[in-house]
Amino acid sequence: MSGTAAERLDRFMARANAAYYAGRDPFADFTTAPEITQAFGEILGAWAAVTWQAMGAPDPVLLVEAGPGRGTLMADALRLVGRVAPAFGRAIRLHLLETSPRLRASQAEALSGTGVVPTWHDRLDTLPDGPFILLANEFLDALPIRQLVRTAGGWMERWVEGDRFVLRDADVQPVAVPGRSVAQGDVLELCEPAMAVVRHLTERMSRQPGAALFLDYGSDRPGTGDTLQALRQGRPSPPLEHPGEADLTAHVDFPLLAHLAREAGVAVHGPDGQGAFLDGLGLFARTERLAQGRPPEQARALADGAHRLAAPERMGRLFKVLGLCHPTMALPGFGREEAS
């Protein structure tokens, strides 16, 4: 990927990540929760089954995953669903939101033994109509962001020129979020694709049963700051260097997404810490059951994986969980204190 002309940050990030995911195995650079322990996908499969019951057990129902990675999460979820909630399993019509041909092939292989044949989509708006449950683990963080800078004269925007930022007049105003104050010199990030995802889902939820669960890293309180980061060859890298060779991400603005959903009239749960959420759904109990009868080193690996996902000093507090659903529903797993 090359080019020296100034380019708006979100366009630079979109091009860089498209090149990165098309040409590299991203899991050589980072590890996501489903790859840490099978209990993660199983817990989310159980969550989806309970949510389906809360929807009135519609048959058929769309089970959608946005950013399914290697397919590990969904394979683990479907394996548990087939064992403990077979009626839900029979109702599922599986849809995967994935643009990478390389990752689609990995997902097809991972799901080949589940008996469920997925349909792939490049965009959310090509999903068929009907009741749905959407899972999205570390999906929003890779969507391109804009960065606005508050100046004495108004809003300016960061553009990329070579390996440095330049400021240009902003042609957009940020959405006002209750509790957020922006001082002169502050950077405010704006992820328009994430906002579009929430607006699309809330529009669907206004007319039919639906639920969405987002797990990602970000803040549960309104704030400001530059959170753009890059991983290259498994290590942090300057975000503007080596475009197309590094995974670019930014923290998810959960307060903004929750605000948009509330304004649209849907029920909002969270954002809560991932540790409290997974603990409330039985992560540690499931881990203990998986460890029974296994060699000590495998049992330790399972316990270490659960600790990594839920401990506040690991992923438990940095990662948040946001649930959205039709206003007549309630979602399991929310409202607990932080797991220890």
Describe this structure in words.
There is one protein chain. With 340 residues, the chain is α/β, with parallel strands linked by helices. It has a domain at 29-143 and 190-226 and 249-325: Rossmann fold. 38% of the residues lie in helices and 24% in strands. The chain contains twelve helices and 16 strands. It has helices at 9-23, 33-36, 38-54, 72-84, 86-91, 101-111, 192-205, 254-263, 274-280, 283-291, 296-310, 312-318; strands at residues 7-8, 61-66, 92-97, 119-121, 132-137, 146-151, 154-161, 164-169, 187-190, 210-219, 229-232, 235-237, 247-249, 252-253, 267-273, 319-325. The strands form three sheets. Strands 2, 3, 4, 5, 10, 14, 15 and 16 form an eight-stranded mixed β-sheet that branches. A hairpin with a 2-residue loop joins strand 7 and strand 8 (164-169). Helix 3 (38-54) packs across helix 4 (72-84) and helix 10 (283-291) runs antiparallel to helix 11. The longest helix is centred in the first third of the chain and has 17 residues, at 38-54. It is globular.
